[in-house]
Amino acid sequence: MAQQAKAVNDLKPLYRAVEHLIERGMTTDVAFLLKEYSGLSWPDPRAWIYGHLCNYLPAAPRIEMAEVLLRHTIFDAPPLIIQRRAADMLVWGQPAAVVERWIEKYLSPEALYMAALLAQTLTLRGRDTSAASWATRLRQALQQAGHPLGTLPLFLHDIERSLPQRHYRYTFGTLGGESLARPGVGIHKPATFIETCAEPVRFTPLAPLDGLTAPFDLWTTASNGQLEAVAVALDAPIPQLTPRLLAGLGLSSVQSAKTVQLYPASVEEVFLNLYLGGLAGGAYGGELYSAEARLAAWRSLGALVGLAFNGDLESVAEPGRCCQLALYADPGSNFFSEIFDFAVACLRSDGQSLAVLAVTDTD
To answer: Which Pfam families does the annotation name (predicted)?
Structure first.
């Protein structure tokens, strides 16, 4: 079959041949194709066959065929984005009980990452597995390995209960796709502020806490994204986030106090946008997919409110409720586009420290 894939015109008969293998349950042959075609790229048409296999197998009617893809992600070491997307699609395409059996079956050092991805994706799709027979062993193995996903519990916090998930659609032999929302200021109305002080903002720059940019880091490497992450200690406490305050920080994402618009936001809204940033990626890539997007959102929220995330969800969520949070947008800055644009400011509960995160991804 590999010899047939020499031109784009060969794709249709190749699709039919691969579909025939899947229908007959030829697991060894399909596993061979996945291993052989992994890492290829366009214009090699075999890369298209590989992509279609990765898209079709997760929801294959024969569970053993879906498991072929899982084994490929574990034992053939495809790129991380393939592993993360496969976990998302396998949880979407197969019954939760089947996915749990896979986690228990493949709970070994070489399969630890995929097991963690599957478990966290199940959690995000509403299945509390914290009491499952394999849950403790998985958590202990991840923590012993020092893997960051080991810090995340297998149940949702209240601020996570309305998170959207990717919805996939796929027909073998045609391009598939997925739909989901993207981060942004949504339908909020900008707040109205009465500025009571015209003095310059005085502050001392601080090093932003680790993890602040986590949901968006891949936007800068897999796409054309630009990031701005700032933390400051104000010389005196202030009672409110205002346009003048943001404009006084010398941010690239803010042109002036007259042009920037602030949208007061809840901790739930901010977490949603941080999660979507990792889930969706930028204009040309950078998706973390569900499990890693959840971890990145918690790390980023923790850094915003001034805490290092250690796995205790409430220890980050509660301070978030006590901070002043606002999404903002400034059409006059170079951090403004119609889709791939997000900015948030957090005045912490002490009224004297502030963190800002902005990202944009434009052509």
So the answer is: DUF6183
